[in-house]
Write a structure and sequence with these properties.
By secondary structure, the chain is of the alpha+beta class. It folds into two domains: about 15-25 and about 145-185; about 45-135, Immunoglobulin-like (Sandwich). About 35% of the residues lie in helices and about 30% in strands. It has helices at about 5, 10-30, 145-185, and strands at about 45-50, 55-60, 65-70, 85, 95, 95-100, 105, 115-125, 125-135. A five-stranded antiparallel beta sheet has the order 1-2-3-7-6, with no helix packed on it. A hairpin with a 2-residue loop joins strand 6 (about 95-100) and strand 7. Helix 2 runs antiparallel to helix 3 (about 145-185). It starts with a helix and ends with a helix.
């Protein structure tokens, strides 16, 4: 093989390398997906679940209220005839009111406490008993990044895009100059 016959291979390798570099830069520049309300990965409200007799009780603390959902264990249907009493360890009863079949609601503010303990008592045709339960609260994380981080990310994306464009234009220029030199050489 002559030297000219081998010459395109390094060019192709260089172009392939530049293309791979550009692809890596573009992949790295892709911002992470942000969670939306439709996403399944949404953080849920603080809750605890327990089983008392044949009844499942779920306590959920959300928006200044404490919700209690009572369902039968055997078929997950709401318990119709349940009597619910929830007290704090010091004996103070939380005033639950029935909102619908199997759902009770009470005003509740956990304040700055990281967790609360409760004594949950249920009486119904499906079962009766008392259980101690605990809810641990978490701080709600903001879905939006701080403005400084967002601005820096935008600058990085612009720099990466400009670098990628520079690689493509540079490789095109090198290729064009090589062709002209090749055409002008004496035989």
């Amino acid at each position: 093989m002559t030297r000219d016959a081998r010459r395109p291979a390094p060019r192709l390798r260089a172009l392939a390398l530049m293309g791979a570099t550009l692809a890596c830069l573009l992949f790295a520049a892709t911002p992470p997906a942000r969670a939306t309300e439709a996403d399944a990965g949404q953080e849920s409200a603080p809750r605890t679940t327990m089983e008392i007799g044949g009844v499942t009780v779920v306590l959920i603390a959300s928006e200044g209220k404490l919700y209690a959902f009572l369902d039968r264990v055997e078929d997950n249907a709401p318990v119709k005839d349940a009597h619910l009493v929830v007290t704090t360890p010091n004996g103070k009863a939380i005033p639950f009111a029935p909102a619908s079949t199997g759902l009770f609601v009470a005003p509740f503010d956990h304040g700055t406490r990281a967790r609360d303990s409760f004594i949950v008592s249920v009486t119904s045709a499906d079962g009766a008993g008392d259980v101690t339960a605990e809810i641990a609260y978490h701080a709600a994380a903001s879905a939006e990044p701080p403005a400084e981080e967002s601005g820096m990310r935008d600058k990085i994306l612009i720099a990466l895009a400009a670098g990628g464009i520079g690689i493509v234009l540079g490789s095109m220029a090198v290729r064009r100059i090589s062709r002209k030199r090749h055409e002008l050489r004496p035989v």
